[in-house]
Amino acid sequence: MGDPMISKGVTLTRHLLDDRTPLEGDLGALLIKIGAASKLLSREVNRAALHGRLGYTGEVNVQGEQIAQLDLWSNEVFVDALKETGLVCTMVSEEMEAPLHVDRNCLPGSYVVCFDPVDGSSNIDINGTVGTIFSVRHRRGHGREHVAMDTLQKGTEQVAAGYVMYGPSTMFVYAAGHAVHGFTWDQTVDDYLLTHADIRIPQRGKTYSVNCGNYHRWAEPTRQAVDYLSTPDKATGRPYSLRYVGSMVADMHRTLLGGGIFMYPGEAGGGKNANGKLRLLYEVAPMAYIVEQAGGRASTGVERVLDIEPKECHQRVPVVIGSTDDVALVEEFYRGKR
Ligand code: AHM
Ligand code: MG
């Protein structure tokens, strides 16, 4: 008996290589390699305290943020794994100032991968959930000098995106144009097994997820929207519950499965945090792609995330993402309709 999905024992590899899984080009091979690299990372996250790999390096990255030891190690793991595929021509990582161009891999049909190897890294030292986020596009340029053409492509150009969540279980969730599927790592067989086929986000949820510590820095529409969600009203199912891990993968995974809304809004006053904290290419756009394919929406509050034309690799954008009705509601505050 048991769950029929699990008893079928469909591994990630079998699923990706199955003729019935509609994947273009070499995408299946690439996703298998990302899955394999994530298993190394899962083990390392699990054993970081035992290996003395907790804590920070003392360096700051291009965005002025502290670099955790695990950030550097995992970036190398992913870079090496992607290089080895022979399929990835250009990489953008949160941990690398400039895109990495691999000349020998720049063949027709090769890919550009943008990734955040350890997202939510402030959670590492407290044994909290962290994740990896990745986004795959086709190469556009024809050489090192065209690297901007490769990297600065709109979210609509993604051919796949996914995340790995290193939580109580390690999960691999991906979308590649048709559906969103989730796999759970079974340590006993050392493989990802399909446990969440065709994930659909509920049209409306009961939770909102945002760092309320920034409340007094937000613009008025964000404050009004959060006030509205947290005000009791039986008829409209309020208040929503607040859930915030501070690790985008964990907060988005909950939102994807249970519905509701996740936000990282910009700050008022036109300062350096006017566009919030999260980066378009390797955090917001891949999550937007996944959520849209699960039937939800992703917005900056005023425009669709996937339509944004990126201007630079580490660009930040405000994000309001999740259940269709909840995103539409928050947008009404931004449009002044509420
Ligand atoms: P990181 O990539 O440096 O780890 O930062 C991104 C993380 C996200 O996972 C999370 O949503 C956000 O930062 C939390 O930020 P804050 O602590 O400001 O709420
Ligand atoms: Mg990150």
TrEMBL record:
Supply the source organism for this entry: Candidatus Methylomirabilis lanthanidiphila
What gene is this protein a product of?
Answer: fbp
Q: What is this protein called?
A: Fructose-1,6-bisphosphatase class 1
Summarize where Mg(2+) 2 binds, as residue positions.
D116, D119, E283
* Cofactor annotation: Mg(2+)
PANTHER family linked: FRUCTOSE-1,6-BISPHOSPHATASE-RELATED, SEDOHEPTULOSE-1,7-BISPHOSPHATASE, CHLOROPLASTIC
Binding sites annotated in the UniProt record for Mg(2+) 1: E94, D116, V118
Q: Which domain of life is it from?
A: Bacteria
Q: Does the keyword Transmembrane helix apply?
A: no
| Subunit structure and binding partners | Homotetramer.
Q: How is the cofactor bound?
A: Binds 2 magnesium ions per subunit.
Q: In which pathway does it act?
A: Carbohydrate biosynthesis; Calvin cycle
Catalysis: reaction(s):
beta-D-fructose 1,6-bisphosphate + H2O = beta-D-fructose 6-phosphate + phosphate
What is the predominant subcellular site recorded for this chain? Answer: cytoplasm
Q: Which UniProt keywords apply?
A: Carbohydrate metabolism, Cytoplasm, Hydrolase, Magnesium, Metal-binding
Q: Which residues form the Fructose-1-6-bisphosphatase class 1 C-terminal domain?
A: 201-334
